[in-house]
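Ticket #4471: structure export looks truncated?
Reporter: QA, pipeline team
Priority: medium

Steps to reproduce: submit the single chain below to the structure queue and open the exported record.
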Amino acid sequence: MFCTSCGIELPDSYRYCYQCGAATAQTGFTPSIGHPGVRLTRPMSEKKIAGVCAGLSRYFGIDVTLVRIIMVCLALWPPSVGLIIYIVCWIVMPKDPLLLPPPKVSSDAAAVV
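Actual output as written to the record:
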């Protein structure tokens, strides 16, 4: 395996490049089939209240509207069960990491480097 940043050859078991520190394909929760594992998190871009229903729908691969309808039905009957589940999930489920755009380099800074 080769590092995608600096191009040096690495053993297949390495998760990070020892020269530049870039992550390899072995990084993260990847099952044996090669696809990244799905994590149960609350997406902040798709939330209505706390993002619990959006996170559950993404994790289980179903429509978010269906999850919201199920949560409302559970909140109404049996009484308060859906509300308790929602609050517990709100507390337990972590938020998605904040994705920031890469910093912009001005032409003056590029000339100095």
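Status: closed, not a bug. The export was complete when the record was re-opened. Leaving a note from the reviewer for reference: Residues 1-32 form one domain.
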